[in-house]
Amino acid sequence: MTRTRYTRYTLRLAPAAVAAGAVVTPAAEPFDDWSGAAAYVRGPDPAALDYAHPEAVDIIRALQPEGWQEADGGDTLIFWLAAGAEADAVAALAKLGALGVLKVTRERAGWEDAWRRFHTPRVIGRLYVRPPWYPARDDLLDVVVEAGRAFGTGGHASTCQCLEEIQVITPGPLLDVGSGSGVVTFAALRLGFSPVCGIDIDPIAVHAAVGNAALNGLAPTFLLGDAGDPGCALPAADIVVANLALNPILRLARRFAAGAGGGAPELRPAHLLLAGLLVEQGEQAAAAFPGYRTASRREDGTWLMLHLTRVA
Fold first, then answer.
1. What is d(CA 284, CA 282) in angstroms, rounded to the nearest whole number?
2. N or C: which end of the chain has fewer CB within 10 A?
3. Which 8-state DSSP code applies to residue 4?
4. How does pLDDT run across 180-197, given as a tens digit for each residue?
5. Which residues lie below 8 Å from residue 9, measured CB to CB, with a gap of 6+?
6. 159 and 97 together in one domain
7. Taking the model in full, what pTM does it have?
8. Exposed, middle or buried: residue 81 (CB in 10 Å: 0-12, 13-18, 19+)?
């Protein structure tokens, strides 16, 4: 059998902290960085949470690499292209080379199997979240996620927090905002939530989620769009999970807040799960949703998930 050969590209960029006068904090869960878990930069704006070098990240994601990760707090970006793909990527690679120092290394044959060691199953309450090369377990609810180009293998702290919290909520219609690879969407279906819909602004993520749905034998609805845009139609849901970051969560508040005159009546869910927040951002996120109270919270010292419930 002929194996596909892969090339590793390592892009070293000038530290974002030097350019922005910020302090760089590495991403949590570094073993899960392969899926694109974001490093972030804390700058003068306390609401800022983004890739350290978004321009370079956008170029890499447009290449649809076989995998990519961040290192050095986001100042080093590593990605892989299959042999033969380089010919169509010359212009993009030139742009990346102009942004920093781009090193090219041919991977050994069989490399594509080696990284699987870093993607192992995890038990999260009643859920068994696994890559497809591990077998299911009869005693747990099975969620299969192919590690690919979309964020979300179930390993990042914010995803785990969401998966833990939906297990203590009475099932009902659920909307997964920023659905990524679909792990929360599939878990919700396994737990009895229905109907379940995921929405993501990234077409690569939606494509990956549809593929993962087939692996799970599930048929949720996935939408491509910006849930924070008032022109984007959203289904009504009793539960909304938003594993995003502070800025997009604040944009969502304009649509989902249930204060006097705030939000659309059909978009006032009973439960809001806000994740991807830094611990120190919790108060600001909660304040953006008048008409809701904080029912519970999960945190690990860095990442915070808030469970807000609508006030009668």
1. 6
2. N
3. P
4. 889 999 999 999 999 999
5. 78, 79, 80, 81, 93, 96, 102, 103, 104, 105
6. no
7. 0.70
8. buried
Query: What does the pLDDT read at residue 119?
Result: 72
pLDDT-flagged residues of the chain (< 70): 1-3, 16-50, 110-118, 147-155, 257-266
CATH of the domain at 266: 3.40.50.150
- Confirm whether 129 is domain-assigned: no
CA gap 66, 148 in Å, rounded = 7
210-229 residue pLDDT tens: 999 999 999 999 999 999 88
Q: What angle do CA 173, 199, 246 make, to 5 degrees?
A: 100
Classify residue 130: in a domain, yes or no. Answer: no
pLDDT at 33: 28
Query: Does one domain contain both 83 and 175?
Result: no
SS3 content of the chain, % helix, strand, coil (to 5): 35, 25, 40
The amino acid at residue 49 is L
CA torsion, ordered 145, 306, 188, 163, to nearest 10 deg = 40
At 161 the pLDDT is 94
Half-sphere exposure at residue 12, Cβ-oriented, CA atoms within 13 angstroms: 3
Q: Which residues lie below 8 Å from residue 95, measured CB to CB, with a gap of 6+?
A: 59
- Do 52 and 75 touch, CB atoms closer than 8 A? yes
Expressed as residue numbers, the domain containing 294 is 154-310
Q: What's the half-sphere exposure (Cβ side, CA atoms, 13 Å) at 259?
A: 11
